[in-house]
Amino acid sequence: MIATGAYFYFQNENYVKTNDAVVSADMLPVVSPMTGVLTNWKADQGKDVKENETIGKVSDGVKEIPVTSKMSGKIIKNEARKNQMVQAGQSLGEEADMDHLYIIANIKETDLKDIEIGESVDIEVDGDKDSVFAGTVSEIGYATNSVFSVLPQSSNGNYTKVTQKVAVKIEINQPSSKVLPGMNASVKISI
After folding, report:
1. Cα(116)–Cα(70) distance, rounded to whole angstroms?
2. Model-level pTM?
3. Alpha carbon separation from 18 to 88, 120, 121, 149, 157 (Å, rounded)
4. Residue 122 forms beta bridges with which residues?
5. Max Cα separation, the chain?
């Protein structure tokens, strides 16, 4: 019984943990530069692209303008087909930087004081349960998540104090190919 108590004390004094975390990546939409017919479309899901690579063209019958990638990465969503009519600014797909995945962990404001940039992190991702990945705290948010909530804060005279959460960005060192943006994760930050 004493050993169990000592273990939990050690864990609470040396780590900040949360299951409220998700795998993320920098992502950008691939958009049509003008209204016309999509020709020569090469943005298959899973395709690796380089920044400014031509992945299709849009023709209005007079001129043809290339559709280009905005960053180096991988096409993770294809929403268009060759010979489809498209509008200027229409999203044709989504690209993501799969070489630099990271975790966004929502940490309680009461635990934030213990976390510093550069601290090491153990990461478990639901999509690859058999692995523990190493990570590093790279950014600590400048506002609580409630500041960006679409639901307005209301006051009806009955106030209940709720512990707020702040987004903490954690770089993942060498994730496996099973780790994908949007997957749930658990983190244990060494403090």
Report:
1. 32
2. 0.82
3. 42, 14, 11, 20, 32
4. 134, 188
5. 81
Q: Encode pLDDT of 98-112 as tens digits.
A: 999 999 999 999 999
The pair of three-digit structure tokens given for residue 39, joined into one six-digit string: 């020709």
Edge-to-edge strands, sheet with 48-49: 27-31, 91-96, 73-78, 48-49
Give the CA distances from residue 189 to residues 48, 124, 170, in Å, rounded to whole numbers and listed in that order: 33, 12, 10
Q: What is the CA radius of gyration of the chain?
A: 22
Structure tokens belonging to residue 171: 């770089």
Write out the two tokens for 135: 């990570």
Beta strands in the chain (DSSP E): 15-24, 27-31, 36-39, 48-49, 54-59, 64-68, 73-78, 85-86, 91-96, 102-108, 120-125, 133-144, 165-173, 184-190
Give SS3 for 129: coil
Contact between residue 74 and residue 95 where contact means Cβ atoms under 8 Å apart? yes
